[in-house]
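Entry details:
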Amino acid sequence: MRLKFFLRAVTPNSVIPINYYYHFSSAIYLLLRFGSEEFAKFLHDIGFTVPGKKKNFKLFAFAVEFKRITINQNLINLVEPEVFLTISSPIIEPFVKNFIIGVFTKQNIFINFEDLSTKFNILQVEKLSEPIFKDEMIFNTLSPITLSKPIDKNGKPFPYYLRYDDPELSQFMKSNLLDKYKVVHNKQLEVDDFTFEFDKDEIERKKGKVSKLITIAERSLEETKIKAIKCDFKIKTHPELIKIGYECGFGAKNSMGFGLVKAAK
């Protein structure tokens, strides 16, 4: 299920951090707590485990869109106070149910950063219809996509983030989606054909500048820098696997605001 929330900043000319992903993720977990403290803690601390693997997923993704903004160093200035938060998850019970309870209980969210706090009222929620899933589709990224593999760096595992032209991109995306499918449906999906490719025309048009470096938990002990790609893509595989990506998000770090997409028109 996919829901779009219409938010409005309470104070005119409000600001939020340019690396807002972590802060909106925290706000989502806070709303979940109002629905179920137990489930919110489980999802945050553990998540849903892939059968037979030591790998967990949160099974939700989100994206934030702005109406009109300006950027001043590390802050986004909301020229217009409207902000749109889209959240997607295949887990209606308990994720969507508890989140909705939290929304109607709280009716606002706070984005806190250092000594700044911006309050948004939740004005409206809209259920979005999903596309008809086919074996070949083109998607627009609402939030950037990230995938990584561990490499050794001074005897310690270190994430190597895949580039848009990485030859291993399709392989890692296929594995990512199959694992999510297995968690959601508790069974393996047999897939023969799989291709995933970012839009070469867009990459050429933007002279290769489709990558973003995003800081999570900025200026804290948990600060992490994540490389991600904001670019349309084509995927060809089993429609049910494409649906999983649409619902859960494509790639990694979905619960931190990565990998939410919409079908291209």
Observations:
- The chain is about 25% helix and 35% strand.
- The mean pLDDT is 95.
- The two ends are 20 Å apart (CA to CA).
